[in-house]
Alpha-(1->6)-mannopyranosyltransferase A
Amino acid sequence: MTTVAPVRRRTVGTFVGRYPDAVLGFVGALAVTVGTYGLADVPRNDGTLADLGLAPMTYGHGKTLSGFVFWTGVALMVWAWVRIGRNPKAMTVRATVTTVLAWAAPLMIAIPVYSRDVYAYLGQATLLMHGFDPYQDGPAHVPGPIVDSMAQIWAPTTSPYSPAFMLLAHGVVAVTGQNVFAGVLAFRIVLLPGLLLGLWAVPRIAAHFGASRRRGLWFALLNPMLLIHLVGGPHAELLLMGVLAAGVALVLDGRHVLGLLVLGCAGSLKVTAFIAVPFVVWIWIDHRRRERAVTARDGVGVFAATAAIPLAVFGGFTALLGLGLGWLNGLAFADRIINWFTLPSLVGHIASYVLAPIHVWNLQAILPVTRTVGQAALVIALIWFFWRGRTDEREAMRYMCWAMFAVLLLEPSTLPWYYSWVTVLAVAFTLPMWARQSVVGASTFLLIAFQPDDSIIFYKPVETLLALALSTLAAVSLRHPDPLRLRRAGALLRGHE
């Protein structure tokens, strides 16, 4: 007993000394967590913060101070992430995994930030607890602190979530009831295995194709934008991304049936994961081709198994929930989310501005047209990507990534945490510097454009320009350690002393 503590202290001290950027990001995550108690989506009509003596953080000078702490934390996390990404070889795979877990740990107790979706999860599960059908009824049917805390636009809407996710949510509410804080914490615990699965799967996907495991972890899981949204949110994608990545990793490893079972679980959490399933056909056929000549019978068998296994899993969860395919009703409500981060919505915004001098076109009249065109384009793109991926497993993986990215660009609405769908798959490839810089810039911009209290600034020109400037600085910093030449300026100042 006398030797364990000193050894542990030496181990921690060694890690801190070798990886100061990891510590910098951890301090940032702590600051972000503290700041959420005054700046984020605090539960409404709930006295928990007042009972803890933290209510003054939510108004007046307390809220201002919370904002300063929060944004300082975001800056520290982005700064540390960029510094680590500049030289990922300086950090071992084990150290990178430790860093991901360390940055995520404080966020487990943050106030829900950047979104009120977790309250909607709890509200939809509460309906189940009270005998309602969340695929037919909205959370407003069961008033209480959970519904009060939701974004009210979703209170009367039905659930768009697949059966496995609704079963998980039901399990959470069965334990926590109407206790909002307990429900949020329990949901994070339930979703956390997704991060652990991602830590297992991402290095395997990268190594399978000869890409860097460290850079893959940095790209997909250490990204502050994804960590803060997924863990601090929290969001269903935290679990989804891990299950999706694990299923793909198993398929690449030759365990096709097991991989398809896992991908069926991913699709049962959120149907978007099923976009990856058709590409398993080409990976499986390529693996069989390496062993022997592939016959038409082989092809039919692979096609049938690839379709049947995930559908059987989905059918099992659907039967277990007992509510049929009612989740299809909820998908239509995604149209209520309007931002210009998808091409159909962007084109709609531009058209409404450009045509304004000629004819006053309301955006709500234009969006149905552009979104219908976008959905048609998406169908064509998915078919084309599927066919292009037939060459071998590498091409199948490449076009699986493009298919996921096409969904993000062409669906009616996209939110920042959706990008986890593609990042955990794109680690298969060694992205060029410009692509990594683009990801850094986009991630930083999304951290600023979406505000911690679930508001947005990208319709405010000055704030948007500031966000663009800061995100550009972060992107440039990935290649150039001192893009503002501050060291040179400091040296000049010292030279004049």
In short: Residues 283 and 379 are 21 Å apart (CA to CA). The first helix runs from residue 4 to 18. The mean pLDDT is 88.
